[in-house]
Design goal:
Blueprint lengths: L4 E7 L14 H17 L4 H6 L2 E12 L8 E11 L3 E9 L5 E13 L6 E2 L4 H10 L1
Antiparallel strand pairs: 1-3, 2-5, 3-4, 4-5, 5-6
Length: about 140
């Protein structure tokens, strides 16, 4: 794993599956969210501090390609990279593989930085300290 990517693993639990032991597709989005959050945390970007500053990152677009199903007790690994970085938004490219290195799902997830102090949150520039950390890994 390089500085330009991050890996995060999760085990599939019963709560993640349907009655047939297959992961419900929307749970991939939760897994991807956790992977992005953990990478940011490792970069020293703690999302709880955003709230104190009335800043948030919101998902504005998801393009997800489900290729195969994850099953109960699978060990899944997500690889995350930043494919585009702008002053107020970024796009994460994410891939999820199982313990046999079979790609189960890929996604491109665009997030925008917004000002939460407004009645209706509006896009704002990513703070310089955060933008600097993101530029180092993109």
């Amino acid at each position: 794993m390089s500085l330009n990517s991050h890996q995060h693993s999760v085990r599939v639990y019963y709560e993640d599956t349907d009655a047939g032991g297959i992961v419900y597709y929307a749970n991939y989005l939760k897994f991807f969210e956790r992977a992005r959050t953990e990478w940011l945390r490792e970069l020293g970007i703690n999302q709880s501090i955003f709230l104190e500053q009335n800043i948030g990152f919101v998902v504005t677009k998801v393009a997800m390609d489900n290729k195969a199903s994850a099953k109960l007790d699978d060990l899944l690994t997500m690889t995350t990279t930043i494919s585009r970085l702008k002053s107020a938004s970024l796009v994460f490219s994410q891939q999820l593989v199982n313990q046999n290195q079979i790609t189960l799902c890929t996604a491109e997830i665009k997030v925008a930085c917004v000002n939460l102090a407004l009645a209706k949150p509006k896009p704002c520039t990513i703070p310089k300290s955060i933008l600097g950390a993101l530029k180092r890994v993109s």
